[in-house]
C-alpha cells in the first residue's frame, strides 16, 4: 500500500508580502497511489515508478502586480454594438447610481430575458472604460462560473504562473488584487442567485459592481435594483431598420413589427437579422410571424455569431420555473390568453385551491421577470404570452395539450369573474372595465370556429355591457359571434340561443338599423312561441321588443295592439300587479304618448305609478322609472305644474337609491332641466344641463349616445338663452355633436339625423335660411332612405324643410312641399298627432307668405283648435299656434281678432319665459306692429315660427316611448327623456338573455 500526501505550508509571518505558494493539500490512498493536485509534471505508477514534478511556484503578492495596460484593461466579450439605440436615460441612471456612493457600490440591472440587460451593461462598460483602471466581465449564472471569472483575471495578469495554481487559488488572488487596486469595474452578467455573489462583493469595496439578472428579487441587500423595461417604440423601430438594412420607406411597417414584438430588444434584433439574411421587408416578416409563430420565435439566421433566439432564451427560464413550481407554469400558460396589462390578481385566485400557493407561483414568475407583479394587478410581456401559447414539439413546456387546456381554463376564469346582475348597474362598471380588455384579447386569440359555450357566454355578456356603454360596433360584433357559437354548440332553438338573438336585435335597434331589427325580432318571437309557448316570459318579452321596433319605425298602429296583447297576457298569467305587468302597462302608455294620444297616455301612466308605489314601494327603481315617464307625459301635455315637482321628487329618489352618477339619475336630471327650460327658468335649466353633461362625460364618456344627446340638449338651451355670442357658441356645440355622432354612431343613425335636424334649425333661426334649406333637403333624402318617406322623423324633417323654404323666400315651393307632407301625415299618423299639427301650422304660414291669407286661416284655425283641445289653452306650443293664427287674421284684415290672439300668446310667453326673453320681445314687437296696423311678415325668433309639439326632441336611443329624435325647425331643445335603463320588455326577469349570470345555456 502506497500513500502520498502533499501539504501546502501555512502562511509564514516571515513571508508576509511574498505571496502564497501555489500548493494545496492533496492526498491519495491505496496501492500504488499517487496524489496529484495540479498538472505540474509527469507521474508513473507501479514498481520502479518515476515521478517528475515541477517545483512549487509562489504567486507574487497581489499589490505588487500592476493592472493590464491601458488598451487592454478589460476582458469585455464583444466590441461596442454599432447598432445600439436608445437607453440614454438608463445609461445615465447607472452612471449616477454607481458614482453616488462610497464603500461597496453595487448596481443591479434586472429584467426579462432578452430585454437588453447584457447589452446595456456592455455599452456602459465600453463607454466608461477610460474611467476605470480595470473593467472585468464575469459570467455569473453559476457559482463555479463566478470563481472561474475571477481566476481569469489572475491568468491575464500572471500568464506564466497561472497554470501552476488551482482555479480557487487564482480566484482568491484576484480578490486580493481588487482589494489593493482601487478604481475598477466588475460586471457580473446574468447572475442567477444573489447569495452566490454576496461573499465576493462583500470583500470588494474599492470599485464598482454592475450586476445583470433575470431575477428581480433578493437583491435588496446589495441596493435597489434598476428594472430595465422595453425599448421606446421609436428606438425599437430604428433598431429594426438598422439591423435589417431597410430604408425610411419601411418605417411604418417596421413600427408595426416592433409593436407586435412588444419592443423587446432581442426579438427586434432577431427580426432584423432574419429580414437582412432572407432579403425580405418588414411587412413580409410580420406576415410570417403571424402565420408561423413557433418557427419564427426559434429562427436564427445562419452564420450569426449570436445564436440567441426568443425560444432559446426563455426555454431555460421556463424549465427552471416549471421544475420549481408546476403551478407557476400553469399560470403563465393561462396568462398567455389574456391582455398583457392590468391583469387582476384575483382573477387568477381560482386557478388553484390554495390562494397562498397561487401567491407563491406568481412571486416565482415575478422573480424571473416573466411577469411584473403588483399588489392588485400584474403585467406580462406580450411576447412572453405569444411564446407561452404557441405549441412547440421541441419544448416540453409548450405541449399543445397543456396550451389548449390553459385556453379553456382562461375562459372559465373570466366567466367566473364577471359581475352578477344587470350590466346597467353602475357599481359593477369598474369590474366590467377591468375585465373587458381581457375578454377582448381572448376573443381575438380564440378562433371563432372553436368557440365553446363558455366563450359564447363571455361574448354575450360582454356585448350586453358594450351596448349599455354605447359601443355599438363592438356590441354587434360580439353579439353576432356569440349567436353563431350558440347556434353551433347549443342549437338554433335553445333558450340561450334565442336570448342572444333577441339581444342582437337590441343592438341593431340601438344602432338604428331597423331593416335588420324587425325581421330578427319577428323570427325570435315566432321561435319562442313555438319552442317555449305563447305565455312564457321570454315570449312575452319578445312581443314587447317587436312592438318597440314597430314604434321606432313609425308603425305605431302595429305597435299598440302588440303592447295591449302583451299587457293582457301578462296580467292573465302573472297578475295585474306583477312587475312585468306594470312594465307592459308603462309601455302601452308610452305608445299612446308617442301617437299623440295623451288623453289615454296620462291616466295609464298615473295608474301604473300608483300601483307600483303601493306594491313595490316609492323607492323601488321601477317605481321611480314610472314616475319619470309620467313626468314626460305631463310635460308633453304642457302640464308643467305637475311635471316639475314630479321630476324633482323622482330625481331626489334616484339620487338616493341609485346614486348621483347612475344613468337613470342623469336622465331624470336632464328631464327636469328640459321642463325648467320649457317653463322659462333658463338659468336653472342651463345649470342642470351643464352638470348633466359633465357627469355623463365622466361616467359614460364624451361620445356615448346618451352623452351626445345631453350635449345637444345643452347646446339647444344655450341657443334658447340668447345673449351676445351665445348663438355662435351654440352653433359650434351643435356642430361638434354632429361630428361626434357621425364618427361614433354613423351618418344614418337616428341620433345623427336628429343632430343634423337641430343644427339646421339653429341655422334657420340665425337667418342662414339658404344653408338651412340645403341641410334639410339632404336630411330629408337620407331620412327617407334609411327610415322611409313616411316615418314620423322623416315627416318632421319634411315639415322643417317646408318651413325653411318659406323663410328663404321660396313660398310656392314651401306650399307644395308641405301639402304633400300633410297628405302623408294624414295617411300615416293618427289624428291629432303632434307632427301632423306641426305640418298644418307650417303650411298655414307658407300660404300666408305666398299671399294667401284665406288658405292660411283655413289651416291655422283648425290646427289651433286641435292643439288647444289636446294640450290646453296655456300650453306654450298652443301659444305658438295662436300667434301664427293672429298673423293670418291680421293679413286677412281682422286686426282686432289678431291683437286678441297675440295678446293671449304674449301673456303665456311672459309667464313661461319671462319679459326679457328674446322670444317674448319678438312677439311683443309684432304685437306692437299689429296695434299700429303695420303688420309685416318678417322671420324673426318667435314670429311665425314653424312648430311641432309633443313627443319631439332628443330622446336616448331605446327609451320607452322615445322617438329616436326629431325636433322641428323651432328646435324646442331639450325634451323629456325616457329612462334609458328600462327598454320596454327588458326589465329584470323579462329576458334571460339580459342577465348573463342567469343564462340557461352558458354552462
Automatic annotation (TrEMBL):
- Which domain of life does the UniProt lineage start with? Bacteria
Q: Where is this region: Disordered?
A: 941-1003
Residue ranges, compositional bias (Gly residues): 950-960
Residue ranges annotated as compositionally biased, kind Low complexity, are: 965-974
- Please list the coiled coil stretches: none
One Pfam entry for this protein is TPR_10
Name of the featured protein: Tetratricopeptide repeat protein
Which InterPro entries has this protein been placed in? NLR-like (IPR053137), P-loop_NTPase (IPR027417), TPR-like_helical_dom_sf (IPR011990)
Amino acid at each position: 500500500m502506497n500513500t502520498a500526501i502533499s501539504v501546502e505550508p501555512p502562511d509564514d509571518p516571515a513571508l508576509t508580502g511574498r505571496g502564497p505558494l501555489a500548493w494545496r493539500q492533496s492526498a491519495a490512498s491505496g496501492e500504488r497511489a499517487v496524489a496529484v493536485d495540479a498538472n505540474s509534471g509527469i507521474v508513473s505508477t507501479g514498481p520502479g515508478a518515476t515521478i517528475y514534478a515541477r517545483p512549487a511556484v509562489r504567486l507574487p503578492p497581489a499589490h505588487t502586480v500592476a493592472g493590464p495596460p491601458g488598451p487592454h484593461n478589460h476582458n469585455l466579450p464583444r466590441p461596442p454594438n454599432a447598432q445600439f439605440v436608445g437607453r440614454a436615460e438608463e445609461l445615465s441612471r447607472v452612471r449616477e447610481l454607481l458614482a453616488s456612493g462610497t464603500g461597496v457600490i453595487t448596481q443591479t440591472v434586472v429584467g426579462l430575458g432578452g430585454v437588453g440587460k447584457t447589452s446595456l451593461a456592455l455599452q456602459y462598460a465600453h463607454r466608461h472604460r477610460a474611467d476605470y483602471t480595470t473593467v472585468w466581465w464575469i459570467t455569473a449564472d453559476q457559482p463555479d462560473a463566478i470563481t472561474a471569472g475571477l481566476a481569469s483575471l489572475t491568468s491575464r495578469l500572471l500568464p506564466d504562473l497561472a497554470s501552476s495554481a488551482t482555479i480557487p487559488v487564482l480566484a482568491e488572488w484576484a480578490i486580493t488584487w481588487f482589494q489593493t487596486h482601487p478604481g475598477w469595474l466588475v460586471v457580473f452578467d446574468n447572475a442567477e442567485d444573489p447569495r452566490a455573489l454576496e461573499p465576493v462583493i462583500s470583500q470588494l469595496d474599492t470599485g464598482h459592481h454592475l450586476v445583470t439578472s433575470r431575477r428581480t428579487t433578493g437583491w435588496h441587500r446589495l441596493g435597489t435594483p434598476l428594472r430595465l423595461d422595453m425599448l421606446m417604440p421609436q428606438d425599437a423601430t430604428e433598431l429594426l431598420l438598422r439591423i435589417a438594412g431597410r430604408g425610411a420607406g419601411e418605417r411604418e411597417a417596421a413600427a408595426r413589427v416592433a409593436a407586435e414584438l412588444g419592443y423587446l430588444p432581442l426579438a427586434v434584433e432577431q427580426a432584423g437579422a432574419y429580414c437582412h439574411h432572407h432579403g425580405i421587408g418588414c411587412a413580409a416578416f410580420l406576415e410570417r410571424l403571424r402565420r408561423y409563430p413557433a418557427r419564427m420565435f426559434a429562427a436564427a439566421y445562419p452564420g450569426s455569431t449570436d445564436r440567441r433566439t426568443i425560444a432559446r432564451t426563455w426555454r431555460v427560464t421556463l424549465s427552471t420555473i416549471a421544475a420549481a413550481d408546476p403551478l407557476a407554469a400553469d399560470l403563465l400558460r393561462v396568462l398567455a390568453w389574456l391582455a398583457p396589462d392590468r391583469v387582476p390578481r384575483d382573477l387568477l385566485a381560482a386557478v388553484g385551491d390554495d390562494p397562498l400557493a397561487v401567491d407563491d407561483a406568481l412571486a416565482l414568475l415575478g422573480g424571473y421577470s416573466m411577469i411584473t407583479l403588483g399588489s392588485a394587478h400584474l403585467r406580462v410581456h406580450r411576447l412572453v404570452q405569444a411564446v407561452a401559447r404557441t405549441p412547440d414539439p421541441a419544448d416540453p413546456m409548450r405541449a399543445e395539450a397543456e396550451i389548449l387546456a390553459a385556453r379553456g381554463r382562461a375562459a372559465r376564469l373570466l366567466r367566473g369573474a364577471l359581475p352578477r346582475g344587470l350590466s346597467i348597474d353602475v357599481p359593477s362598471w369598474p369590474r366590467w372595465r377591468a375585465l373587458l380588455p381581457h375578454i377582448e384579447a381572448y376573443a381575438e386569440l380564440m378562433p371563432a370556429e372553436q368557440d365553446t359555450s363558455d366563450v359564447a357566454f363571455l361574448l354575450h355578456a360582454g356585448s350586453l355591457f358594450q351596448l349599455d356603454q354605447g359601443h355599438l360596433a363592438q356590441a354587434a360584433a360580439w353579439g353576432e359571434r356569440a349567436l353563431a357559437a350558440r347556434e353551433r354548440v347549443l342549437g338554433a332553438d335553445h333558450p340561450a340561443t334565442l336570448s342572444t338573438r333577441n339581444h342582437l336585435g337590441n343592438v341593431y335597434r340601438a344602432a338604428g338599423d331597423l331593416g335588420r331589427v324587425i325581421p330578427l325580432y319577428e323570427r325570435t318571437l315566432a321561435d319562442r312561441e313555438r319552442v317555449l309557448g305563447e305565455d312564457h316570459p321570454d315570449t312575452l318579452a319578445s312581443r314587447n321588443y317587436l312592438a318597440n321596433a314597430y314604434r321606432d319605425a313609425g308603425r305605431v298602429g302595429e305597435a299598440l295592439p302588440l303592447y295591449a296583447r302583451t299587457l293582457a297576457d301578462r296580467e292573465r298569467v302573472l297578475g295585474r300587479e306583477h312587475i312585468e305587468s306594470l312594465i307592459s302597462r308603462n309601455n302601452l302608455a308610452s305608445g299612446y304618448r308617442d301617437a299623440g294620444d295623451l288623453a289615454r297616455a296620462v291616466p295609464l301612466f298615473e295608474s301604473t305609478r300608483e300601483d307600483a308605489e303601493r306594491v313595490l314601494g316609492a323607492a323601488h327603481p321601477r317605481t321611480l322609472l314610472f314616475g319619470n315617464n309620467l313626468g314626460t307625459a305631463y310635460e308633453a301635455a304642457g302640464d308643467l305644474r305637475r311635471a316639475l315637482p314630479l321630476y324633482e321628487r323622482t330625481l331626489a329618489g334616484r339620487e338616493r337609491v341609485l346614486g348621483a352618477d347612475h344613468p337613470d339619475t342623469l336622465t331624470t336630471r336632464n328631464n327636469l332641466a328640459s321642463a325648467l327650460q320649457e317653463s322659462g327658468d333658463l338659468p336653472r335649466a342651463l345649470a342642470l344641463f351643464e352638470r348633466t353633461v359633465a357627469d355623463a362625460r365622466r361616467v359614460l364618456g364624451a361620445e356615448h349616445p346618451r352623452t351626445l344627446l345631453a350635449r345637444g340638449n345643452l347646446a339647444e338651451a344655450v341657443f334658447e338663452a340668447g345673449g351676445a355670442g351665445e348663438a355662435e357658441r351654440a352653433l359650434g356645440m351643435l356642430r361638434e355633436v354632429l361630428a361626434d355622432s357621425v364618427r361614433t354612431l354613423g351618418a344614418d343613425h337616428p341620433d345623427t339625423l336628429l343632430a343634423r335636424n337641430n343644427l339646421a334649425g339653429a341655422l334657420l333661426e340665425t337667418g342662414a335660411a339658404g344653408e338651412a334649406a340645403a341641410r334639410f333637403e339632404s336630411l330629408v333624402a337620407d331620412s327617407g332612405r334609411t327610415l322611409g318617406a313616411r316615418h314620423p322623423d322623416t315627416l318632421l324633417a319634411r315639415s322643417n324643410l317646408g318651413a325653411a323654404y318659406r323663410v328663404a323666400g321660396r313660398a310656392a315651393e314651401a306650399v307644395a312641399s308641405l301639402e304633400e307632407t300633410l297628405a302623408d301625415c294624414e295617411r300615416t299618423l293618427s289624428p291629432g298627432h303632434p307632427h301632423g299639427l306641426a305640418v298644418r301650422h307650417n303650411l298655414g304660414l307658407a300660404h300666408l307668405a305666398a299671399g294667401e291669407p284665406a288658405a292660411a286661416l283655413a289651416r291655422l284655425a283648425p290646427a289651433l283648435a286641435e292643439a288647444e283641445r289636446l294640450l290646453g289653452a296655456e300650453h306654450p306650443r298652443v301659444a305658438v299656434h295662436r300667434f301664427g293664427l293672429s298673423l293670418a287674421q291680421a293679413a286677412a284684415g281682422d286686426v282686432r281678432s289678431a291683437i286678441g290672439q297675440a295678446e293671449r300668446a304674449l301673456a303665456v310667453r311672459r309667464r313661461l319665459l319671462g319679459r326679457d326673453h328674446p322670444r317674448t320681445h319678438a312677439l311683443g314687437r309684432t304685437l306692437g306692429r299689429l296695434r299700429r296696423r303695420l303688420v309685416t311678415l318678417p322671420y324673426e325668433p318667435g314670429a311665425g315660427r314653424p312648430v311641432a309639439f309633443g313627443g319631439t326632441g332628443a330622446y336616448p336611443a331605446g327609451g320607452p316611448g322615445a322617438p329616436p329624435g326629431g325636433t322641428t325647425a323651432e328646435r324646442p331643445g331639450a325634451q323629456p327623456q325616457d329612462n334609458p335603463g328600462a327598454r320596454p320588455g327588458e326589465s329584470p326577469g323579462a329576458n334571460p338573455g339580459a342577465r348573463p349570470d342567469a343564462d340557461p345555456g352558458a354552462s
